[in-house]
Amino acid sequence: xxxxxxxxxxxxxxxxxxxxxxxxxxxxxxxxxxxxxxxxxxxxxxxxxxxxxxxxxxxxxxxxxxxxxxxxxxxxxxxxxxxxxxxxxxxxxxxxxxxxxxxxxxxxxxxxxxxxxxxxxxxxxxxxxxxxxxxxxxxxxxxxxxxxxxxxxxxxxxxxxxx
Length: 163
Prior knowledge:
Blueprint: E1 2-4, E2 13-18, H1 35-50, E3 55-61, E4 64-77, H2 83-86, E5 92-103, H3 112-128, E6 135-138, H4 143-151
Parallel strand pairs: 5-6
Antiparallel strand pairs: 1-2, 2-3, 3-4, 4-5
């Protein structure tokens, strides 16, 4: 368990170990403001976890789920990347995919989105100490999400949905 804090936040937010949705957390009240992210969590997080296609990390306050992220292994094809990114890499490039990142609407605007992202990135760094990866890919759900990631130094790749 890890304790998180954001700029101006008084909330005691605790990050759990990787944990799919189950009775341990009250997920019924979770609403990120992005119905696709909420629906994905409720309909797919468990199956993704069970088949080990990704790992979902849940954050909670007093047993109520308030945020989650899902991280997975990924593979890029060098020829699909702009030359400046692909040059010097093998034909297939190992990467990590930050597939989902969502914060409850009640906590948005308190700096916790950046804290949640930092926590997710910390988990990626920990994983890459054991398994190599050249890139971190983010699956930004819309322009607003793209702006969030760009604010934290991510770049859009030309020729992709967000690029």
